[in-house]
Amino acid sequence: MAKVTGLGGVFYVASDPAATRKWYADMLGVTGEYGPQLAWSEDPHAEPYSLISHFADDRYIAPGKGGFMINLRVDDCDAMVEQLRSKGVEILGHVDEGYGKFAWLLDPDGVKIELWEQGEAPDS
User: Fold this and answer.
1) pTM for this one?
2) What is the 3 state secondary structure string of the chain?
3) Do residues 27 and 80 make contact, with C-beta atoms less than 8 angstroms apart?
């Protein structure tokens, strides 16, 4: 049986796709030919990757509707929060739930981004 194996990408309309891609590069350190590319290894051609792609209009997305948030896995949530704050990015919240650390911010188009650092699995 076929199965889903991970996040292939997130696609949405941005008022200025080039400026949004620059923000992702400057603030989060992710770039790519078609938008921020999140490699699953250091060599993005050796392993699968996820993509965040921004469009100037909704022709590609239609008839889909908005109402979403992007969850990005990070290796050190506390350090990422401090890095973003030092660049003037407002952090909406930052918590450690034990099973993971989370922080929230908005990109320049108002899309909510959740940063997630995986913690220890809860006891079952």
Assistant:
1) 0.73
2) CCCCCCCCEEEEECCCHHHHHHHHHHHHCCCCCCCCEEECCCCCCCCCEEEEEEECCCCCCCCCCCCCEEEEECCCHHHHHHHHHHCCCCCCEEEECCCEEEEEEECCCCCEEEEEEECCCCCC
3) no
Q: What is the pLDDT of residues 5-17, one digit of tens each?
A: 678 789 888 989 9
Lookup: tokens for 123: 């006891």
Residue 55 has pLDDT above 90, yes or no: no
Measured CA to CA, the distance from residue 35 to residue 28 in angstroms comes to: 12
Best CATH choice for the domain 9-118 from the list 3.20.20.70, 3.10.310.70, 3.20.20.80, 3.10.180.10: 3.10.180.10
Give the gyration radius of the chain's Cα atoms: 15
> Tokens standing for 39?
């490699």
Q: Which residue has the tokens 């320049």?
A: 108
